[in-house]
Automatic annotation (TrEMBL):
Name under which the protein is recorded: EAL domain-containing protein
Domain EAL: start-end pairs: 1-229
Entry GO MF terms: cyclic-guanylate-specific phosphodiesterase activity
Membrane spanning stretches: none
Pfam families, A to Z: EAL
SMART domains xrefs: EAL
Gene source species: hydrothermal vent metagenome
Length: 229
């Protein structure tokens, strides 16, 4: 397993851990998500990986509870797991029975996949809400269609498409400036995550713009306080 910390700019106790399954071939090569996700989805392996990831997230949350540490986990999801009503109902019912702390499990879906599955977004959003699972929309490109998807999917977080410190999105005169995006997101009740924050200076600039969460490129072993005795 690998983990990335998503740091809250408002409250250090609200940080999120993104879980990433590391798959290694027999030759020792690490596979990227793009290498295996399509095949895994077509063969049904994705459901096995999803269950494996869920079990690990629950382990982190429960371990935190034992030490009075509130742990939030972010898990990537694919819509192929949700197109069958029976399967998703069974999955979410199982999670609901665990009575996890509200907000401790966040499911992340990509904007592109959400567009392709727009006809069932409302239904899935309602079922996730009943299971007390929050939703994050990744690769958010702040187009009109993106805002519509976020509303329909009842998201709590939007994770912006990656950009660097030289991007025109940081120009306050830009009609689609980051400052305006953040302001609109907050009015709608969404938290904003900016990724690939690779320097303290870049982080400081984003902090001033009232970004809610910063995610860097570094990988770490998670929640040291949780897993240490």
């Amino acid at each position: 397993w690998q983990y990335q910390t998503i740091i809250s700019t408002q409250d250090e106790t609200q940080e999120i851990y993104q879980l990433m399954l590391q798959i290694i071939t027999e030759s020792g090569k690490e596979l990227s998500g793009s290498d295996y996700l399509e095949v895994a989805s077509k063969t049904g392996l994705i459901m096995v990986l999803d269950r494996f990831t869920l079990e690990h997230a629950i382990r982190i949350i429960r371990a935190g509870e034992q030490k009075n540490i509130y742990s939030r986990t972010l898990l990537n999801q694919v819509f192929s797991d949700y197109q069958s009503r029976d399967l998703r109902t069974k999955k979410l019912a199982t999670i609901t029975k665990l009575n996890l702390p509200i907000g401790s499990m966040i499911f992340q879906f990509s904007q592109n996949e959400a567009v392709e599955n727009i006809s069932i977004l409302g239904e899935i959003a309602s079922e996730l809400k009943q299971a007390k699972i929050k939703v994050c929309l990744s690769d958010f490109d702040f187009t009109k269609a993106a805002w519509n998807i976020a509303r329909k999917f009842n998201v709590g977080w939007i994770r912006l498409k990656p950009f660097d410190k030289h991007s025109p999105i940081l120009d306050s005169d830009n009609p689609d400036s980051l400052q305006k995006i953040i302001r609109k997101a907050h009015v709608l009740g969404y938290k904003v995550i900016v990724t690939r924050v690779d320097s303290a200076g870049f982080a400081a600039d984003l902090w001033k713009l009232d970004v809610d969460y910063l995610q860097g490129n570094f990988i770490q072993t998670p929640v040291r306080d949780i897993f240490s005795d």
